[in-house]
Amino acid sequence: MLCGCGGDIAEHFAFCPHCGIELRWSAEARRNASSSAGSLCRTLRSCATRTFERLADDHFAGPVPDEESYTKFNLQDIYRLHSDRVVIREFQRSEEALNGADWEWWFHSGGQGFGMRVQAKRAKRGGGYELEHIVRRTGARQSELLVQDAQAAGCFPAYVLYNHRNWVAASQLGQVTDCRHGRGEQAQLGCTLVSALTVHAVLRSRPVKAAYVRDRSVPWHRILCDAPRGKQTGLSMAHAATRHLHQRGLDDLRAAVRAEARWARNRDRYGAAARYGPWDEPEEAGEDGTMAEPDVPDPDFQHAEDEVLDMPIYRDVGEVLARPLSPLPGRVRAMIEGAVTEPPDERAAGAMLIDLTDWKLYNNRGHRRPGNV
Predict the structure, then answer these.
(1) Residue 113: strand pairing partners
(2) Mean pLDDT of 242-268
(3) More confident: 198 or 178
(4) Is 372 inside a domain boundary?
(5) Cβ 277 vs Cβ 211: under 8 Å
(6) Helix count (H) and strand count (E) of the chain?
């Protein structure tokens, strides 16, 4: 049998000899837990829990490691437990390129797949994030580079947020729920995902409120929690979950633009110095927390949206969102096969490539291994 850390445990153990956790559960519960020990969802949940506690402890003990340190811890755990289907490639970069680096995640099966370009942000002690970071060497805003680089690589742009114990999700989007791999716990908010377009939406508002980004993020294990069913594969389910995250980000960006247009129209009402966030008027909010579209589109709002979304940085957003599962780029196939490849740009720290081929769900005897997505 296996502990949640991946180490072997015997029936009579009271404590795991590998991680030291107290094994209070019954033998039957341990057998059920070990049956999903190969689950990526379960591993991501465990990584989030460790991040949640570790970041809180680091804030009190100080100094707090940077985002790259937490990313390295998590990637090491993911690879250690899933080396049969996870490949990690680190790129060689100059010291200057360390400022503003991010990772590519590629999910694939049978030569097809999709990618996410991911930037990590750790929560400050009070819960905020450094969302307005400027890359020193170029003077460009990091959030804009993330979207540009993602679109150039054909990837969804996203943020991984590393959170700690000061957060209880206020939004239904971020609520931790039970799944077939285990019970939902607040500590699983330690690692969450949010579209970079949601970050862009919030950066259009003053003051910038990190709570908008945090409460629209979701526990990162959700994108790999759905099992294949019917004609839908594990890859297609993960792709659908990622597209939904990105669509919500695009809706948030549109809502922010409409809020600006509304503020400009009603400047006398709000005051010349006031700037309101895109979700400050609950009577117009939709069920998913974004601003609902009016029954009759307002031409001023539509013009404002078109003007923003036609900017070069957003011009290919819709194309990436609408793109179906496609053949993997040559450089990604080369990384999977073990070839050395050049990074797509200087800000790329590396790539994590996850094989979601359905045969991975079966053990060596041909029996289905439950909970392995």
Answers:
(1) 108, 326
(2) 87
(3) 198
(4) no
(5) no
(6) 11, 8
Lowest mean pLDDT among 19-23, 86-90, 145-149, 308-312: 19-23
- Examine residue 367 and state whether it is found in any structural domain, yes or no: no
Statement to judge: residues 31 and 88 lie in one domain: no
Domain that holds residue 157: 39-361
Report which of 273, 138, 277 is spatially closest to residue 198, judged by C-alpha positions: 277
- With residue 326 as reference, give the H or E element that holds it: strand 326-327
First to last CA, the chain: 19
Contact, 301 vs 292, CB < 8 A? no
List residues bridging with 162 in a β-sheet.
122, 191
pLDDT: which is higher, 180 or 222: 222
The answer, as to whether pTM is greater than 0.70, is yes
Beta-ladder partners of 88: 352
Q: Which pLDDT band holds residue 220 (cuts at 50, 70, 90)?
A: very high
Give 188-214 pLDDT, tens digit per residue: 899 999 999 999 999 988 777 888 898
- Lookup result for tokens 């991501």: 44
Cα–Cα nearest to 162, from 199, 216, 207, 217: 217
The domain tally of the chain equals 2
- pLDDT score recorded for residue 7: 63
Cα(233)–Cα(218) distance, integer angstroms: 22
**Is residue 371 a part of any domain in this protein?**
no
Most distant CA pair in the chain, distance: 72
- What is the average pLDDT score of the chain? 79
| β-pair type (218-219, 348-355) | unpaired
- What amino acid occupies position 47? C
The alpha-carbon radius of gyration of the chain (Å, integer) is 21
- Percent of the chain scored above 90 by pLDDT? 39
Whether 124 and 15 map to the same domain: the answer is no
10-to-1, 15, 18 alpha-carbon distances in Å: 7, 10, 12
Q: What sections of the chain are H helices per DSSP?
A: 27-35, 40-61, 67-81, 142-152, 196-203, 210-215, 234-265, 267-270, 299-309, 317-322, 330-336
